[in-house]
Amino acid sequence: MGILKCRDCGTLYPEAMITSCSECYGPVDTCIEDIDRSIKSKIESRYPSMWRYLEFLPVNDKRAMDLNDGWTPLLRSNTLGEVTGIKNLHLKFEGTNPTQSYEDRSVSISINKAIEFNSTAIGCASTHYIADSVAAHAARTGLKSYIFVPDNTHPEIISPLLSYGAQVLKVYKQEGDIDCQCHGNDPATCTLVTRIAEIPELSLPIVDLDLRSYFNSGYKTLSYEIAEQLGWISPDNIVIPEGSGSLTYNMYLGFKELYESGLIEDLPEFFIVQSSGCAPIVDALIHKKEIPTPLRNPVTLCENLRVGDPADGLYALRAIKYGGYGIAVEDKEGIEYAELIAKKEGILPDYSGGLAVAGLVRLCEAGKISPADSTVVVLPASGIKKRDNYQLSPALQVPRISSNIADLQSYLETEKKNMVRTAIFKKAGEAAEPPALLRI
Amino acid sequence: MKIREIYVRFFGIISSETGHKEIKISTDAKNIGELIVEVCNKYDNLKKRLLSSEDSVLNRHVRCYVNGMDIRLIREYKTRLMDGDKILFLVSFQGG
User: Fold this and answer.
1) DSSP strand E in A255-408: where?
2) Of A27, A130, A294, which is closest to B96 when you measure between CB atoms?
3) What pLDDT is recorded for position A392?
4) Structural domains of chain A ordered from first start
5) In chain B, what residues touch A307 (CB-CB under 8 Å)?
6) Among partner residues A177, A184, A187, which is closest to B95 by beta-carbon distance?
7) β-sheet bridge partners, residue B70
8) B2 CA to chain A: closest CA distance, Å?
9) Which ipTM score applies to this complex?
10) Per-residue pLDDT averaged across A219-226, rounded?
């Protein structure tokens, strides 16, 4: 079922593992067959996971596996709405996915496709969300997984992968490795996975390379869910923390498919937030470049956003052209807002989620987003996943006490005296100040 | 005129246009821009895909590396060539 279509020249292909169009080398996307509004009741009758949108997904009915990916909560904000001045603010929290990140959606589809193509193994080069997701989903299906990581990868990253039974391979650098700014920015693993694609007899598809067309369609399910969770209504704005541009472009496609199927009546505007240490897409937007200029050695604590050469940057910019904007925000603000979201909303996003909310505040201040609009911010992953990232947080300066109850009593009395704090800022105009709780 | 020996590798889909994964070229090309034109003249099919409609400008989906360095991060088409340099062409890809 299904066909593939070149994003640039429109050449059509039958289902296969195609990384690029053979005519123009452009990326290849999956296409959906004609779907109309009548599908709505069918979707609503299904189990709440991303698989309820089966007709939109490039998989056969008899899919091999399911970890109940997706159907993550769309939480109406309690407090951030006041901070930003937006009354109708929702947070799409991807931290409740099986491995706590949005990548579960794409990996799940890719692995089902790998099985359809009779693969017995699957691979990826990642030290982050994709690695965890591939290891977990492969374990569920019985596929062998190979995770290629840089030679200096920390044991804390490798350990859970081994628990899932993944074969982890540290890849050390050789002369002539590609100075890659797109694939985890690691030259050795980047070179290796590119070469794996050269040798089909290895039969080791790389989830986001050989299965890229299918992988991307996982991101679209975020759009389907947001629309359905809002009662088949498109929000006015979507705010997305972005690295490669893929999430924005594919979420745009997802909403476009719903619109063309008659399931929603409008399209949202897309707002991209990047870290100021790695903002090639925002830079291109500001300087009116068609294609982002690559960055060498991009710097950001948000690992999932550290993409100096965004492969889908050009297409993310196209999605923004239909309405929206982009902004770069300091990592420090992202960390502060991640903490604020945790304290005020009860969910702990990763840094990139904090960055997205920080970006939202800035966009409101700049008048790019109206407080009267309905806005959804995508929080890509749980912050619990990478506790080591929080070592820079002042909150980690934890007081020590003895088992003597007098110690606790003394501590609580001292704390009570220190509790006089300025209130968390309440208006968008005051948001330039960092959250008060981090200025203690 | 100095002749240089340059190693050119084609990754993935690009190698199907040349029929080779790697070739060695003896060339007087002084920079990568001149070498790209020379390689394209050698393979007709490659020329129409590797270059954009503007002459001598790479298709936006193609990345070119000189000794592992993306030419866009150094001196682009004016990147000078030395004897024994290793050139690589591949189609851009994403990852995480």
Assistant:
1) 269-275, 324-329, 374-379
2) A130
3) 52
4) 3-56 (no CATH), 74-98+218-385 (3.40.50.1100), 103-212+389-438 (3.40.50.1100)
5) 94
6) A184
7) B65
8) 24
9) 0.91
10) 98
